Amino acid sequence: MFYRARLQAAAALASLSLLAGCGLLSDSGSEADQKIVVGTTSEPSTLDPAAAWDNSWELMRNVFQTLVSFPTGSTSPEPDAAESCTFTDRTSTAYRCTIKQGLKFSNGDVLDAEAVKYSIDRILTIKVKGGPVGLLGSLDRVETVGDNKVVFHLNKPDATFPFVLATPAMSLVAPSDYPKDEVRTDGKVTGSGPYLLDTYVPGDRAEMVKNQNYKGFANRKNNAVTIRYFKGSAPMVDALQKNEIDATYRGLTAEEVVKLEDNKDKNSTLQLIETVGADIRFLVFNPEDPAAGNPAVRRAIAQLVDRDALVAKVYQGTAEPLYSMVPKGIAGHTTSFFDNFGDPDKEKARQILVKAGITEPVAMTFWFTTDRYGSSTAPEFDELKRQLETSGLFKITLKSAPWKTFQAGFTKGDYPVFGRGWFPDFPDPDNFIAPFVGKDTVTGMPYVKNEITQQLLPQSRQQSDRGAVSKQFERAQKILVDDVRLLPLWQGKLYVAAGEDIGGGERALDPQTVMQMWELYRKASW
């Protein structure tokens, strides 16, 4: 039998937490049974947090600690490796954390204030292009106070800084095993998280075992987790149906989700768990490219793209059209692209190009990655190509590459137009604007917009009440629409498919949509 468990809000997660405390989900089986295998199409691009601003966080959340994190049911950062954290001033420019006593890394090194400072400082020193250094724009310096206190001095008020510290990019690493000025590349991990990385085979699997010395918030309901990496969703689903894996996360196609929902295979005993996602997909235009750098070309594409058709044909209800970089469910969401361009219109697009002196079809190359966002990515770009070429105004060539090659290409500025996905670092509108503007961006290309970076973001970051920042972000989205350097396409939902004997799937996704593997367990009886 198939069934769907829905999470509509963080409050639902909190309710489940309370129910679990009363014993609803307490039947977690014997110690020997608690080995879980999870499949995904999202392989890490790096094992070093200083280089990670992508889905590498999936593994990192489970093997490293951060000072603060998001326990199940929480949408605000709470202490993890820290005993307590707080702003020490009214202007939100000094954030002090006291570190728990007795913490150690897996190599035996002490996790103290110096280790925290070292972990954050090396992100700023290494400064990986397209890496998490872009999250630390408000950090001026890190100060240690004795062995167990650290103060983050900010160069401007930033009420979102605790959210930044909660991201896996700010994972704490052992100084003796991580070079201060370069990325660690030996394929190993030295952390203090819920699990130890026992074995890592790139492109194949990551085997994690319970860290017996772990001291943090995670209540581990299994002994070990193996993450298996698949090149496509079809072999992953096949492995699930054959009981070779217990659950899947990231990579299910729309067809596979619909099949599970419709219960077409009457003999199956799988469950499908749906979460309201804040993940988005969008196109990035390279301003240095002769065609993509022309605002008229970008506006014409924005005028032609039919999001409704894209979602209906490729995603079959598992996504919805997105008309701003800030998705539904996040404060400050608007429909600014629709407000500006309206419905797809070939004649309006033609007029935009003619006014700019362009009368011949524009030849462009669109790039996408083959192994990061699931098997629906290729059909998505086929549909975009069809829409643009049907207008007679464009001639599109599609090219693709595995994520590591793709990432290297777009960070070097090699691609005229490319598709990206964004899973939130934290559930705040700031995180859907700030990473894409400034000198260091997640797209690898500078996008200097002084009104956003010097006025709107600083104003919003003075507000500790994050629900009161809509005005600034509405204006920021209007600026992005005027430029069309980024073209939002759709907002997705996230699905976990699992065997009927696996519990905890509805609790496993944190507000950053990162899988907390410790929540999964095998039920002793059904």
TrEMBL record:
Residues 77-440 form the Solute-binding protein family domain. Keywords: Signal, Transport. It is found in: Cell envelope. The keyword Nucleus does not apply. Gene3D superfamilies: Dipeptide-binding Protein, Domain 3, Periplasmic binding protein-like II. Residues 1-20 form the signal peptide. Its main location: other. Belongs to the bacterial solute-binding protein 5 family. This is ABC transporter substrate-binding protein. It comes from Streptomyces sp. 900116325.
